[in-house]
Amino acid sequence: DDVSNFLLMHAMGSNTAGQLASVLAGGVVLAILAM
Question: Which residues of the chain have pLDDT under 50?
């Protein structure tokens, strides 16, 4: 139970990091297009 909970938290952390990267990449693309 402890191990699965740890894996779940790690998976959620990776998902959050991925979403942050997507937002940052989108912002960079918009900034380049705005130029």
Answer: none
Backbone angles phi, psi at 23, to 5 degrees: -65, -45
Alpha helices in 1-35 (DSSP H): 2-34
pLDDT of residue 2: 76
The structure tokens listed for 12 are 């959620």
Distance between CA 19 and CA 24 in Å, rounded? Answer: 9
As a whole number of angstroms, the distance between CA 22 and CA 35 comes to 20
Q: Which residue has the tokens 């937002």?
A: 23
